[in-house]
Amino acid sequence: MAQAGTAKQPNILFITVDQMRFDCLSIAGHPIVETPNLDELARTGVRFDRAYTATPSCIPARAAIFTGQSPAHHGRTGYEDCVPWRYEETMPGELAKAGYHTQCVGKMHVYPARSLLGFHNVVMHDGYLHHNRMRHNVAAKDHFDQVDDYLVWLRQQVPSADLVDLGLDCNASTVARPWELPERLHPTNWVVSESIDFLRRRDPSKPFFLWMSFVRPHPPFDPPQAFLDLYKDAEIPEPPVGDWAMQEDPMQLGLNPVTDKGLVPKRRLKQAMAAYYALITHLDHQIGRFLQVLNEYGEMNNTIIIFTSDHGEMLGDHHMFRKAVPYEGSARIPFILNDPGNRLGLKRGAVRNEVIELRDIMPTVLDAAGARIPDAVDGRSILELARAGSASPDRQQDASLDSAVQGWRPHLHGEHAYGHLSNHWLTNGKEKYIWFSQTGQEQYFNLEKDPLELHNAVNDAEYADCIVHWRQQLIEELKAREEGYSDGEQLIAGIAPRSTLSFLKA
User: Fold this and answer.
1) Which listed residue (74, 101, 109, 282) is catalytic?
2) pLDDT tens, position by position, 372-381
3) Domains, the chain
4) Is residue 58 annotated as a catalytic residue, yes or no?
5) What family does the Swiss-Prot or TrEMBL record give for this protein (predicted)?
């Protein structure tokens, strides 16, 4: 184990993107998306194919990253702005204690916006946040002009420029158009440029922890034209639509550019999908740009790299868009661990199928750094899994596999307060059980036979025992919760959902 505060500690490069689906990697078999740099990180590292975010929206997902905790313990069970972040132990804070120079570039999405949460410095672009943009909002302590470093920089390059110049809403998952300024001014390029500058000005006597946090491919879907051109004529498959999904749209919800469901005109949807994929390839190229410079500084082999997303994007699956729902497009995320210098002894090229979650990032990073993992952390280090090789049935398992996976979580509990679609769900990566807390509706998917979640098998006789098992598991998960969703004997529908648990507001 590395010694805290010594040169033996590796640098940590933590790369997150916002709203990227689990399947949008060439190496994962996507028929359209091109991700050469991420593919190479996966080919020479370890890809976790069953990674999830327990609460799939920006704020609770980032709380899991910062604290290593489950939603029940970090307290954010839905999307709610302007609730202060007062966590005593955070991933960057623990790394700073262990001798690291800690830096974030890009999206934090905490409150107040300038809270460092253990970082020595933050250069910020959170994207368009409504509570900061509204000048009349007395609840917002930080107006956008004060907290967004990218916007200040952009206006130095292009006077009076703004994030809304394209006319695209920050939640518009069904409309797109190309970026109209030079590519170097795009927020994706800016995050990399600022991260490269950090390499120049970092403390050379310390290992560094750099969180390179991109807003895209979260809307607006505004890729530079060169990347949109890669996809504009591609044969893009139509999204899957389950037998349980809405089949008609009498209210024409799909015409709303910021809808979360509805039948979107096919031409508009194809353009949005092309732009979404283009943003991912743009990100991939810029990540490749940073890795080249990291190598120029001689730090590539001294750096552990983690790549993931905070949540996914439904992108028309089952006529749904955005996130917060428990389906694979929303809750399942890409996850790659790479160790160019082979300091950790990872099984290069392995694909792991255990269910991991964003809470596992903090203990993994601290484990790699040789730093103390706080008792309050719920997640577990995935390093032993990454050393154990592939668990695929067609490959011989390493002798260390049994010890590595012994006691790994049997399932993940996820949730999201989301109005009438508020949900709780359980998965082991092979099955998924969903309970909608406001209506009591249940869904069950056999992910091995039905990976696209096309058939709700909750009423199929062959799965009756499975559903009883999963329902009982959820009753146990929720019986101690303050909302009252479970009395220990049954699930109780109709309880008002809470986006934030009471102890955070005390």
Assistant:
1) 109
2) 999 999 999 9
3) 11-346 (3.40.720.10), 412-504 (3.30.1120.10)
4) yes
5) Belongs to the sulfatase family.
